[in-house]
Amino acid sequence: MTSATNLTPANLFGLHGKIALVTGGGRGIGAMIAEGLLGAGARVVISSRRQDQLDEAVEEMSGIGPVEAIAADLSTQQGCEGLVEAVGERTDHLDILINNAGATWGAPMREFPDSAWDKVMNLNVKGVFQLTVALLPLLEAAATPEDPARVINLGSIQGLQAPDIENYSYSASKAAVHHMTRVLAKKLGPSHITVNAIAPGAFYTKMMAQTLDNFGDEIAAATALGRLGQPEDMAGAAIFLSGRGGAYLTGAVIPVDGGYATTL
Fold first, then answer.
1. Is residue 233 part of a domain?
2. How many CB atoms lie within 10 A of CB 206?
3. What is the CATH number of the domain that holds 10?
4. Which end of the chain has fewer surrounding CB within 10 Å, N or C?
């Protein structure tokens, strides 16, 4: 029978001693997740393309826990390899990988540029795959049957349903992320690595700012819970998937959207 001491919140959701990498961690949803992991006790490395953005984020987060930053462009193989090398210089294992870095593009169908497909798919899909594969040695070094290493991919509810917004490459890329999550979960399970995805709904980020400024009230009213997402909602989902309490979950795509995609 399981000891009651193993069923405490500290054991189920605490991340003390864990090392996490959060891509796109300088702002928005990535920053929400990074702060949540720090608060749960993890040591966190954040990355994004812009060093100034990273410096600001590190200054803001350093009061929560140990955080450092590495600038990297994950839309290229060279950028992924550079980030992996830099992480490997800091640690010999990686407990948690949060694949959050992403791009979007909106334009009418008849005007949608070819470049928008390359930019979005290279970062949102190929970059997630390439970085995960390149980090496998560090993830495998941290993995055990009872406490697997974790890969958490950021999808979107726009990859779960046909959106009204004309962001063709973005919604297609997030649907691809969801299915790639399932494929990787099956492949990496024997290596004691779980792979899950979070599909966020409407959270106030730079990417969503204009949409929410214009339609935030309508979007909130369309959710079953009648509100937009808050940082605690995103951090909580990531902490659950990263902690011992989420160790037996893999291949799942979890909508964190107040019920928008599942009840609309």
1. yes
2. 8
3. 3.40.50.720
4. N
Number of residues assigned to the chain: 264
Q: Domain count of the chain? A: 1
Per the domain annotation, does 262 fall within a domain?
A: no
In a domain, 145, yes or no: yes
pLDDT digits (tens, 9 = 90+) for 121-140: 999 999 999 999 999 999 99
What is the CB neighbour count within 10 angstroms for residue 106?
14
Q: What would the pLDDT profile of 40-97 be if each residue is shown by its tens digit? A: 999 999 999 999 999 999 999 999 999 999 999 999 999 999 999 999 999 999 999 9
Enumerate the active-site residues: 170
Q: Which two tokens stand for residue 139?
A: 């993830």
What is the pTM (predicted TM-score) of this model?
0.95
What is the C-alpha separation between 158 and 221, in angstroms, rounded? 17
Distance from C-alpha of 6 to C-alpha of 150, rounded to nearest angstrom: 20
Strand partners, 253: 197
In tens, the pLDDT along 178-215 reads 999 999 999 999 999 999 999 999 888 777 777 778 78
Residue with tokens 């590190």: 58
Range(s) of the domain holding residue 243: 4-256
Q: What are the tokens at 71? A: 């600038």
